[in-house]
Amino acid sequence: FENQQYVKMIEKENQRVHYLETQDEEKNSEISQLQSLTAELDSNTKRNHKQLVHNKNTLESLVKTKVVLVAHLDALQKQMELLQLQNKNQHRDQFEETLQMYEAIWSDYKSKYMSLPLAQKLVSEEARLARSQVSHSHRLQQKQLLQQRIQAAKDERDFQDWHRAEKKLSVAKKLVELENALKEKMALQTQLQEIREKNVPVVPEQDHGDNEQDQENRAGEEPERMEDETSINVWDDEGKTQEGNAPQDLSCQDMASPPQKSDDNTETDRASRGPANVMK
């Protein structure tokens, strides 16, 4: 029994030893890997350090070179500007000399050309053409202004004709109404006369004739008075004035005599005098 226990203990120890050996091998492999990585890092660090030193040296040299190059660039820029200015001045002097030469030639040819009769005639014709153009533009403006005035006058005349026609229609309507009123008045006077003849006693023939004559005169004066008022209103409509006022744009002679009427106005007067003549 004890031997079995020792055997088990030995087996356990062997297993533990095997496990520890395995772990030792793993640790050794890790150590070797870490050592290789450390060596690689050392080499990388050395290489990077060398690169850094090289870059620093290069930067210092580039900074020094930049200062030199900037100074050289400034010098070249100034030199180029100076050369451009000199070249520009030189070319400008040459161009000015050439221009003066051509201007002298032009003035010489111009003086010779202007001395010719045809050239002088051309100058005079150009001046006359300029004056004609100015006059033409002025007349064109006047023409446009006159056309505008003519158009405005035409529009006003059309409006006046329409207004006059409207007035004529209203006058004709009033005349018809007046004729109807006169007819009614005549009928009423006839009825009144008949009633008076029936109710009033007999009077002498002379007095009776005088009364009839007075009634006829009054009956005739009423249409004539209304006819005169209508004629005055018609004359005012034709003269474009208000009732009771004389036309503003008529002369003294025109104010002394009534305005001449057209055929339409003549017909209107005839129509207005019709009822009065009937009454008489």
TrEMBL record:
Tagged with keyword Kinase: no
Keywords for the protein's UniProt record, in alphabetical order: Coiled coil
Chain coiled-coil ranges: 73-105, 171-198
Stretch list, region Disordered: 198-280
Ranges of Polar residues composition bias in the record: 242-251
Feature: compositional bias, Basic and acidic residues: 198-223, 261-272
Membrane spanning stretches: none
Protein name: Uncharacterized protein
Species whose genome carries this gene: Batillaria attramentaria
